[in-house]
């Protein structure tokens, strides 16, 4: 097998991982979950959960990925003592990656659609608009216009193709070098604009002041689910990206930086949204449609609203792109290596199959295929629920068990390479991963499965 290229530096790898973890999870999903769960209490528990389970699980997947420097399925092999059964974990991760890309690219299409409609004035933000206006626009342009969304989604897929064709490391690394600084700049600009609004303080209080009465079992489940989603855990991303990491890189340091960077960006995303919502009297608990229905109302009340709206949705598009590239890469690398085919062919197969079997059914879920339900959910929601509730969590559980009970000292030795000064930390991490994390993940799985498929 052809020897893999490595990331050019630790910084570029961190940028690539940051890009993979800072997608819609931080800029779309995190804010609406904060709004639904009462604000500051959710933010506090999220920060704790990132330390308690997020960072240790990043290290788990980094150990698996760098050990053999191979695709996300064969990473669960390596020698005769490891039963082939363990590769099932890799296949579950691959299914989860397919599931998320099935609807994720469609949301990318929504964002491109909004950018075009705002920039051309079709969604007119030059004067104050109401929820009735934005809801009607959302329904007409998202739910009832499959052709427009299909074209926008295809454009987003083509953008991914153009970058991916340059190579696993070169394409993602180069895009991360340019896109991540642009993303940070846009976020900071939006934050400054929001926190300087007249009524921003109320939004900041809601966002940062914990209301401990809001802390319940559902909040914990939502938080832990968001940690997996936000860090791209459980669908092979960390395993695949770390397979391009040099053997002497400090994985402990990288994992900690990744966790804190993701947490910081997610919290920053909240400052882009909640101050403006409270300034203009918009309820923060509108759920997944928050950025598509509620925020345009905010922008219509804001000086230079059209410019800031285009900037915000451009930010969302960049965040989506930096995440979709490595998720695609999980599947592309696996197809390329398992079928022994050229990269360009593997890319075409993967992007085409996901577009036909995933993206098209998802964008038709609220119109032509609205009568088709899976577990009582439309196709779009089913892809999300099945991936996040079953595949992501079970794959993460399998990874923790694989490291703690199968690899054992081999995993510790892999982490120690480049991280020798953290030996005591690694010893504690190993015991924690072996005994505690599987229990936490199992509780999350049972609770999430009950909420999504039984309740």
From TrEMBL:
Signal peptide: none annotated. The keyword Transport applies. It comes from Campylobacter pinnipediorum subsp. caledonicus. PANTHER family: TRANSPORTER. It is found in: Membrane. Keywords: Membrane, Symport, Transmembrane, Transmembrane helix, Transport. One of its GO terms (molecular function) is symporter activity. GO terms for cellular component: membrane. It is a multi-pass membrane protein. The chain crosses the membrane at residues 12-34, 40-60, 89-116, 147-166, 178-196, 223-245, 257-282, 302-325, 346-365, 385-407, 428-450. Its main location: membrane. Belongs to the sodium:neurotransmitter symporter (SNF) (TC 2.A.22) family. NCBIfam families: Na_transp. This is Transporter. SUPFAM superfamilies: SNF-like.
């Amino acid at each position: 097998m052809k020897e893999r290229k490595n990331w050019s530096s630790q910084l570029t790898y961190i940028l690539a991982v940051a890009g993979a973890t800072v997608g819609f999870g931080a800029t779309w999903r995190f804010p609406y979950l904060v709004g639904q769960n009462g604000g500051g209490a959710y933010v506090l528990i999220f920060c704790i959960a990132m330390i308690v389970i997020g960072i240790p699980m990043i290290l788990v997947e980094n150990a698996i990925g760098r050990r053999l420097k191979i695709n996300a399925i064969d990473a669960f092999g390596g020698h005769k003592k490891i039963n082939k059964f363990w590769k099932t974990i890799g296949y579950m991760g691959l299914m989860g990656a397919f599931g998320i890309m099935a609807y994720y690219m469609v949301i990318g299409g929504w964002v491109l659609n909004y950018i075009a409609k705002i920039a051309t004035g079709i969604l007119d933000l030059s004067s104050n608009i109401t929820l009735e206006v934005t809801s009607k626009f959302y329904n007409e342009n998202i739910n009832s216009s499959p052709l427009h969304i299909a074209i926008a989604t295809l454009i987003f897929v083509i953008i991914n193709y153009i970058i991916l064709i340059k190579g696993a490391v070169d394409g993602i690394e180069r895009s991360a070098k340019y896109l991540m600084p642009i993303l940070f700049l846009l976020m900071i600009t939006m934050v400054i604009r929001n926190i300087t609004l007249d009524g921003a303080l109320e939004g900041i209080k809601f966002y940062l002041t914990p209301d401990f009465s809001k802390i319940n079992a559902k909040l914990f489940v939502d938080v832990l689910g968001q940690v997996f989603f936000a860090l791209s855990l459980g669908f092979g991303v960390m395993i695949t990206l770390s397979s391009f990491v040099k053997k002497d890189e400090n994985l402990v340091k990288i994992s900690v930086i990744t966790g804190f960077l993701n947490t910081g960006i997610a919290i920053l995303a909240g400052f882009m949204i909640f101050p403006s919502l409270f300034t203009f009297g918009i309820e923060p608990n509108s759920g997944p449609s928050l950025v598509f229905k509620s925020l345009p109302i905010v922008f219509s009340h804001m000086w230079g609203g059209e410019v800031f709206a285009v900037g915000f949705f451009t930010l969302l598009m960049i965040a989506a792109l930096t995440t979709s590239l490595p998720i695609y890469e999980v599947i592309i690398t696996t197809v390329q290596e398992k079928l022994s085919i050229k990269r360009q062919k593997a890319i075409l197969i993967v992007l085409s199959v996901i577009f036909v079997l995933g993206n098209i059914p998802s964008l038709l879920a609220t119109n032509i295929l609205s009568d088709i339900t899976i577990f009582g959910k439309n196709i779009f929601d089913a892809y999300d629920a099945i991936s996040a509730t079953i595949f992501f969590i079970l794959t993460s559980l399998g990874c923790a068990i694989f490291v703690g009970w199968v690899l054992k000292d081999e995993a510790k030795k892999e982490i120690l390479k480049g991280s020798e000064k953290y030996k005591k930390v690694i010893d504690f991490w190993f015991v924690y991963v072996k005994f505690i994390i599987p229990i936490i993940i199992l509780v999350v799985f049972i609770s999430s499965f009950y909420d999504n498929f039984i309740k």
